[in-house]
Amino acid sequence: MKAYSGKSQFIVRSSEIDYHGNATIPALVSYMQEAAWENTRDLGISMYNLLERGLTWVLQRMRVEMFRYPNHGESITVETWASGRERVFLHRDFRIYTSDGELLGQATSVWLVMDIVKRQMVSVPDFITDIEVEPNQEPLPFAKGKLPQLQEAQYKQQMPVRWHDIDLNRHVTNTRYLQWILDTLPTETLEKQLHEVDIIYKAESILGDTVISEAGTGEAETILLHKLTSQETGKELVQAKTVWEFKS
Question: How confident is the model at residue 140 (pLDDT cuts 50, 70, 90)?
């Protein structure tokens, strides 16, 4: 069986916008993951298919680049496809379009398979590798390499993990981590246009934990570096880099 791309339609809802009336990055990432869910469902390798075998999908890294944010009520299409495989790493790409074909943004992501009981990553099972990956369009550059380490935190917050932060895998959902790194920033930064985010998920956090979110300036004024750590264990949970532009 060959993998094929999927297209999912969404309408930006009022609960998913900022006070400028634009969709937020966490909302857009949620759309992309929903589109990925629908595509893997059609291929027979959705999270539910994996859970039946004691396995689950885990997002390891995602790099998102936005050119324009859709507005409240705007109809968008998210196209997604399996773009490659490297050992235990499975790559999936996304593009977001308006109803008339304008490219709003794009993303590349890396996924792993986890044993849901042992909470350990495992080799990709045959029923997934048996699906032949032949991208129907040019893959985006894979999200690879290390991100710069945050050297000095300028902003810091504590985030207690609560019931509504937890997903089907019984750990903090990845869009919540993304929201937390942004919520740590001052208003004057959030007023700018978030052009790109590259986020690496290193460890899981569960109900009752407390997450420390830190951020500071990177190698340029427009770049911020982020780190989320567990207050209980000191373990680094997430590392990220964001790139900002002033709104025109």
Answer: confident
